[in-house]
Amino acid sequence: MYAPERQQEILRLARDGGRVDVLSLAEEFQVTAETIRRDLKALDRAGLVRRVHGGAIPVGRLDFEPDLAERESTAADEKDRIAKAALAELPTEGTMILDAGTTVARVAAAIPLEASLTVVTHSLPIAARLADHPGIQLHLVGGRVRHRTRAAVDAWALRAYGEIRADVLLVAANGFSAEHGLTTPDLAEAAVKRAAVAAARRVVLLADSAKHGQEHFARFGDLSDVDLLITDSGLSPEDAAAIERGGTEVVRA
Amino acid sequence: MYAPERQQEILRLARDGGRVDVLSLAEEFQVTAETIRRDLKALDRAGLVRRVHGGAIPVGRLDFEPDLAERESTAADEKDRIAKAALAELPTEGTMILDAGTTVARVAAAIPLEASLTVVTHSLPIAARLADHPGIQLHLVGGRVRHRTRAAVDAWALRAYGEIRADVLLVAANGFSAEHGLTTPDLAEAAVKRAAVAAARRVVLLADSAKHGQEHFARFGDLSDVDLLITDSGLSPEDAAAIERGGTEVVRA
DNA sequence: GTTCGTCGTGTCTGTTCATGCCCGATTGAA
DNA sequence: TTCAATCGGGCATGAACAGACACGACGAAC
């Protein structure tokens, strides 16, 4: 096992467990504690974990993102299935906008290495993930970066989306329903999502079934703006049928 | 079997298996390890795999960049000292532009948690690192993302810098000298740097002494544009004095 | 057909890298 | 305050690496 592989795995363990310690890692990987310390130092220098006595803590967990990690773990299965289904929607060649969000991030992580695409995103984690993908021409949408979601918002982002036209948009929402449309808690983010929706020829909404019926503060569109909804089997067939009557195709992964 | 065929096959094996190692490839293809190393080097240069000790890993499999901090492990010490010295230049309150580059990234990593700043950057790694800093209001400059440097360039970036005015800019250069000014290998990046220089009231150049006297393809400014040069003690006192006569303060960390 | 340059490959040699071990310094919990 | 766990730097070692050079195949120009 190569050192970078081990570091990658350590990072994953840290993110999963919220913390790792030197000795168990040493045992786990069958190397000495010194080597683990070096790995943690490297990860620390890369800004991915924060070194503490006896181990390390992933940075995202550090101060005030318990919910990002938590959200990551809840409904993980559903999100994975949704992400997998969304892969089928990638254009083989063309332009795609990726919204911020953990489910969309999973799709991004799963884009095959042979793919050849132009991707536009305002999400920092997704951009970081795709930056070294050899087949992807990545365009970053700038703006003020919100701490919680690590996505760019405000004037620069709105203007950028106003200037482009993409084949497909993968968008996330915190709540969706026929009555209340697509909603999210933050007004600035809703504005960016709305701009992204307007910039795409085909809108694909990724949302697990728990989001159905929820409504949040800021509305950024109607369900009728969505061409395809990819969700999980937690959405009842009746609800799905009702949505399809509104003109939105539904995939229950 | 021709070299490009072999490389294509190596790439396929790497993507299928997630990793390859030099010795098995050498056996597999009935060539020496040196030849495999050359193949891997070529694939690495093409940005298709990441070289590791003993083998290679296809890009995208690792979602972190182990070497962005370590890539130029040469002069690591100097860079650390320069970064430390640069911390003193942070405004206590105000706006700062951070250019892309490993040295600048180290400064970003070292910004104290209690700092309260507005930061603007077009560097993806730096943005990722600062995104969850509680005291920093982060503004991301968008644009096409260059694979090699993970920095945004082109129209969006140029326009964004044209619209702002910051207190301090920390800028990096691949070469600097009184005669040839500030240079970097890439034209698009030079344009962004030039725009950033124009957007800042005070320009601080971070460059280790090995960069002195070097000149690269694209020039983005003169040494006289720089208010403060932070370098290491490898720059001779005479050179430093000469630069200071040009109106640029010099710190040899 | 000969000659020359180029390219891919192999060989050699000194250098770098990853890791393990050791020891004094530091830390944090009782 | 004390003491055991942990850390970090230095050093050793074997594997892996990089650069220089040589050899042979191939193709172009004469």
TrEMBL record, chains A, B:
Protein name according to UniProt? Lactose phosphotransferase system repressor
Q: What GO molecular function annotations does the UniProt record carry, in alphabetical order?
A: DNA-binding transcription factor activity
Keyword Nucleotidyltransferase among UniProt keywords: no
Highest taxon of the source? Bacteria
InterPro entries, sorted: Carb_Metab_HTH_regulators (IPR050313), DeoR-like_C (IPR014036), DeoR_HTH (IPR001034), NagB/RpiA_transferase-like (IPR037171), WH-like_DNA-bd_sf (IPR036388), WH_DNA-bd_sf (IPR036390)
Q: What does this protein do?
A: Repressor of the lactose catabolism operon. Galactose-6-phosphate is the inducer.
Q: Which UniProt keywords apply?
A: Repressor, Transcription, Transcription regulation
* Keyword Aminoacyl-tRNA synthetase on entry: no
Q: Where is the HTH deoR-type domain?
A: 3-58
Which portions of this protein are annotated as coiled-coil regions? none
